[in-house]
Hints:
The chain has ten helices and no strands. By secondary structure, the chain is mostly helical.
Amino acid sequence: MTPAETFQRARTPEAKAAREQAILDAARGLGSERGIRAVTLTDIADAVGMHKSAMLRYFETREEIFLRLTADGWREWTPVVRDRVSAASTPAGVATAFAATLAARGPFCDLLAQAPLNLERNVSVEAVRAFKLTTGESLARITEATRAALPALSAAAAVDLVATATSLAGTFWQISTPPPEIAELYRSDPRLGHALVDLEPRLRRILTAYLTGALAS
Length: 217
């Protein structure tokens, strides 16, 4: 008998919450291993030991699962970057705080790239609302810490900093993690050296330049 055949429907709120968490944990593991784009709903169902139709009682789509994981990523990253920013007092220090904490979270960067492209587009309005409320709370907490570290930075510039950091982290992570055969191509042909991207130092340089300019203006 397969794991899916032994699945029993959760019948209490506690059991339902535990099953939802198991689904999220399985999706997180698969996404970290393969990349978000390569993970299907069937893959997640198989990893949990459920029929795909049974899993739809907990999440409507694979996008909803990964959107929940993106929200979890924001909640986990926010206090970490706030602590790093709070210990900084210069544009370079704040930029380093953002770049280092994002670069250390590759799966979160992958989710950041996928969220606006795919994850927010095949889910319910309520799922998007819950996600945006989470990101809004994180944005407020991060910008508060950033303006405390750099008092001359305007509120709008602090918001733009977070948007720039997270958007570029998602993009640069995709570029910096090509398939092995493509990475070897880039390394073997000197003409393609520009395609090799190191996420953290590039993000740090761009954010430092942005903050320097924002403060000067």
